[in-house]
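>> received
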Amino acid sequence: MAENINIRTANSQENSVIAKHFYLMWQDIGVPQESLQSNWLEITKEYIQQARQQLFYQAFIADINNTIVGSVSCQILPDLYPNILKPEYRKQGYIWGVYVEPDYRRQGIAKKLMGEAITYLKSLSCTQVILHASPQGKFLYPHLGFDENNEMRLDL
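>> returned
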């Protein structure tokens, strides 16, 4: 476990760091640089700003000795189809952008970040949390209680 780790709520001045982590996450999972938008920073910061206003977006930062080493984002999952279910039956939260700097991985930081995100989504009365795991992160999520779901994919 990393010592002197501080997990805290991110502020809007840290949106650039969160965006950088999101960008690096895509690179880590093997997405070629030419497949990423050149204005990824602006796109991500704009999304975060809108999600804060409309989807109860919140991010959490891990820092060690005032150096940010990881982050996670979470929000209410927007409806993909007409939602006829009562919120007490299903209100979905979504976790995305889980990232820890390479030198700080395998020290429990992602687990702590996930714990904060899950607690936040519970505070919003979410009944379910969804995420899409990277190959590197897949081992962590079952330890936090996540089940594999029935999402089906068809590459076109």
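>> The CA atoms of residues 95 and 131 lie 5 Å apart.
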